[in-house]
């Protein structure tokens, strides 16, 4: 039987951050993976999605420059765009695993399951360790409806050889908005079907309304307040059946339907009962130090039941914290800085820190500014149809921001740096930034 200081289960951003930092700290570390090395983000999440977003951005920019020296590009060649994506994803797991091994971390292939409080089995190996980090992530949750076997997932979409002519996304969260924008830009007729009338819950509702309008302008349809009950295959595609408000029947046919109704934690295969590790439907339950009900077992990333958004940067932040905790250099409970969330739609929607809704609730201590930036030079020069920002200040300090535009992803990170470093308007008097850029807009925003 092999013995390690620490065994990390799951090689995604959370597990990898922990494993590398523990190795740096002198520990003997094994990293266990039962599928694609590197986890969701580089293989079937953020990165492949953003490779396809590159195509969407070209179409978006082209549309904005029509009649300004440009005419319409034909359309996206989907198989070529997919080949571009695969040029990144296909070699990724192999080179990731090579990197792990070159760093001196033992890479073990197999599905890990606990067989005792400090012992797992993975493949043929039985392994003991002083500490375990569980970082097994999540997988798509499949709606429990009749014919659910016909639903595709985000993983299927991100590896589709041909783009369907007409498709639906069920759910109106991050995945539906991002993949719908990609599919629409590539020429598919897209509908987002949602069970209530509040898409992208968690983001500012005014900006979400503007995003929905922008999608409708691009030809994306929405079916709100529809509870889907069944999907059936026939000779012409997939028939989606449900009930709308007032018990009205909803029946539509699509070439393909992608379920995007959330993700569920990967816990079942781990046999957590054998190690006395508690979990619930949201994931593994942990204390403020990311320790589970078994003092030798920790958890980080998407598999944790937590309030923090389940994103790559939060997973790696937690993995790095856990390494410090196990190495004995983190005495305090985990504390998150303001976390940036971005929906890579068309346009992009982003937020960080105190939300406009929270600012409105705590009347008096926060000041909320709403600004339409559409006529600012940064946006005029690219023919941007909509650019809005909502800024929350506490005294002279920026504490929160929400933004909607094709540049919102970059802008929100700039604003997060101001928030994290308590940079106020006067601080820009000491700086000379390259102009005209998003960064040179900042002094006028804060
Ligand atoms: C379509 C999509 C797009 C996304 N886009 C973004 C984005 O733009 N930005 C962003 O911040 N986040 C994005 N995310 C979320 C991001 O991918 C996750 O938050 C992140 O990957 C979580 O990292 P993790 O390490 O917790 O888990 P994962 O990356 O899911 O890694 C977990 C690993 O554990 C392995 N595993 C599971 N069970 C076992 C077992 N029993 N034994 C061994 N190994 C096991 C899995 O195979 C997997 O490789 C996206 C997600 C999806 C699905
Ligand atoms: N850009 C990014 O950072 C990014 C991109 C994609 C995914 N992610 C991560 O992956 C997670 C999963 O993405 P997602 O879009 O699947 O989840 P989500 O939680 O963002 O959205 C799920 C949507 O499905 C709806 N829904 C839930 N149950 C339903 C039901 N029974 N019937 C109909 N609709 C239902 C919800 O109301 C919601 O609108 C995200 O929460 C996020 O953590 C992040």
UniProtKB/TrEMBL annotation:
UniProt xrefs under Pfam families: Pyr_redox_2 (PF07992), Pyr_redox_dim (PF02852)
InterPro entries: FAD/NAD-bd_sf, FAD/NAD-binding_dom, FAD/NAD-linked_Rdtase_dimer_sf, Pyr_nuc-diS_OxRdtase, Pyr_nucl-diS_OxRdtase_dimer
Named cofactor requirement(s): FAD
Domain called Pyridine nucleotide-disulphide oxidoreductase dimerisation: residue spans: 341-440
Keywords: FAD, Flavoprotein
FAD/NAD(P)-binding domain span: 4-319
Keyword Flavoprotein: yes
Domain of life: Bacteria
Similarity comment text for this entry: Belongs to the class-I pyridine nucleotide-disulfide oxidoreductase family.
UniProt name for this protein: Glutathione reductase
């Amino acid at each position: 039987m092999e013995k390690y200081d620490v065994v990390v289960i799951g090689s995604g951003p959370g597990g990898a951050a922990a494993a590398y930092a523990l190795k740096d700290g002198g520990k003997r570390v094994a990293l266990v993976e039962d599928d694609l090395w590197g986890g969701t983000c580089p293989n079937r999440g953020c990165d492949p999605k953003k490779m396809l977003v590159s195509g969407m951005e070209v179409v978006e920019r082209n549309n904005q420059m029509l009649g300004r020296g440009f005419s319409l590009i034909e359309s996206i060649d989907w198989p070529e765009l997919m080949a571009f994506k695969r040029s990144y994803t296909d070699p990724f797991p192999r080179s990731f695993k090579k990197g792990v091994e070159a760093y001196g971390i033992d890479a073990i292939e197999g599905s890990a399951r606990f067989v005792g409080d400090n012992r797992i089995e993975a493949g043929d190996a039985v392994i003991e360790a002083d500490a375990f980090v569980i970082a097994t992530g999540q997988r798509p949750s499949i709606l429990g409806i009749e014919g659910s076997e016909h639903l595709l997932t985000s993983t299927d979409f991100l590896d589709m050889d041909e783009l369907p002519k007409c498709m639906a996304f069920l759910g109106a969260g991050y995945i539906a908005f991002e993949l719908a924008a990609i599919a629409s830009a590539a020429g598919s007729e897209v509908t987002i079907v949602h069970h209530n009338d509040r898409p992208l819950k968690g983001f500012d509702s005014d900006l979400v309304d503007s995003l929905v309008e922008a999608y409708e302008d691009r030809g994306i349809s929405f079916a709100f307040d529809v509870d889907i009950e069944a999907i059936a295959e026939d000779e012409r595609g997939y028939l989606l059946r449900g009930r709308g408000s007032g018990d009205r029947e909803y029946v539509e046919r699509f070439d393909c339907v992608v379920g995007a109704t959330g993700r569920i934690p990967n816990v079942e295969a781990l046999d957590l009962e054998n190690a006395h590790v508690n979990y619930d439907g949201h994931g593994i339950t942990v204390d403020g130090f990311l320790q589970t009900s078994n003092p030798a077992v920790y958890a980080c990333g998407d598999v944790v039941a937590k309030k923090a958004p389940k994103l790559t940067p939060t997973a790696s932040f937690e993995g790095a914290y856990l390494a410090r905790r196990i190495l004995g250099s983190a005495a305090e409970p985990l504390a998150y800085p303001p976390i940036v969330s971005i929906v890579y739609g068309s346009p992009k929607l982003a937020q960080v820190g105190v939300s406009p809704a929270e600012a409105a609730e705590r009347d008096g201590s926060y000041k909320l500014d709403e600004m339409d930036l559409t006529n600012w030079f940064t946006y005029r020069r690219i023919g941007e149809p909509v650019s809005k920002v909502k800024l929350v200040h506490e005294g002279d300090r920026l504490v929160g921001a929400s933004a909607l535009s094709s540049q919102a992803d970059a802008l929100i990170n700039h604003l997060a740096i101001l928030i994290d470093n308590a940079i106020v308007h006067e601080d820009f008097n000491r700086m000379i930034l390259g102009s005209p850029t998003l960064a040179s807009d900042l002094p006028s925003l804060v």
